[in-house]
Write a structure and sequence with these properties.
Strand order of the largest sheet: 2-6-1-7-8
CATH superfamily of the largest domain: P-loop containing nucleotide triphosphate hydrolases
CATH architecture of the largest domain: 3-Layer(aba) Sandwich
Bound molecules: cytidine-5'-monophosphate
Largest sheet: 5 strands, parallel
CATH topology of the largest domain: Rossmann fold
Number of helices: 10
Strand content: 15-25%
Order of helices and strands: EHEHHEEEHHHEHEHHEH
Shape: globular
Length: 224
């Protein structure tokens, strides 16, 4: 028996904006029969809860954001943990422009990061999990059994995001606007977006979703 056998499986999948972390983590968790936790959705939920007060984000204090965070909980679902505000799943609204353009500001607040990290860690106390985000393999689960760092060229990430959003190939103008938006968010998030020294790097630019999921599942099975 290896020393790992005493601990539940944790797989971390980190990477920059729109690198496919969340969809990959969902598929990997389903194949492994464990739950998915999306830490970005927690940051988004805290931001959405704070936005409800209606005042300008550049005036927000960290204390007021933490008060909004108290209304956010992670509800265990069939296959994942769902972030809820006042008990309600906010779903697609969390990916709207208001949240996306403000979330990096919230994610810079150290006490908010500590709050999210505790919430994410608590899921792994009782379940095997695949968690995705920016710093899951460094700050949150430094001892995770498997750490993956997903990368893809910005223009490829933008193309996939637009395809997912509109269901059609983007025009050159749409592609360049989305690439610029992603690069701007990467810059804002760069401090907390770091690969763990022992992460397995997977460049998804030229490979299919099935292939990347297959590679991660195979690695996780080896280490399970
Ligand atoms: O992954 P997603 O794009 O949904 O994350 C939204 C935002 O949450 C990121 O732009 C980043 O500011 C923040 N985030 C973070 N650390 C994580 C996950 C997300 O700072 N582990």
């Amino acid at each position: 028996m290896s020393s790992f056998d005493r601990f539940p499986l944790v797989v971390t999948i980190d990477g920059p904006a729109a690198s496919g972390k969340s969809s990959t983590a969902t598929a990997v968790a389903a194949r492994l029969g464990v739950r998915h936790v999306d830490s970005g959705m927690l940051y988004r939920s805290v931001t959405a809860a704070r936005l409800q007060a209606g005042d300008a984000p550049d005036l927000w204090t960290e204390q007021s954001v933490l008060e909004a965070a108290r209304r956010v909980t992670l509800k265990p679902g069939e296959t994942d943990f769902v972030p809820c505000i006042d008990g309600t799943d906010c779903g697609d609204a969390l990916h709207g422009d208001a949240v996306t353009s403000t979330v990096s500001l919230v994610a810079k607040m150290s006490h908010v990061r500590a709050w999210v990290n505790i919430a994410v860690r608590s899921t792994a106390a009782s379940h095997e999990v695949v968690v995705d985000g920016r710093d899951m393999g460094t700050a949150v689960f430094p001892d995770a059994r498997l750490k993956v760092w997903l990368v893809a060229l910005p223009v490829e990430r933008a193309r996939r995001r637009l395809l997912q959003r509109t269901g059609r190939a983007p025009t050159p103008a749409e592609l360049s606007a989305e690439t610029a938006e992603l690069e701007a968010r990467d810059l804002k998030d760069r401090e907390q977006t770091q690969p763990a020294a022992d992460a397995v790097w997977i460049d998804t630019t030229g490979i299919s979703q099935d292939e990347q999921v297959g590679r991660i599942v195979a690695l996780a099975e080896e280490r399970r």
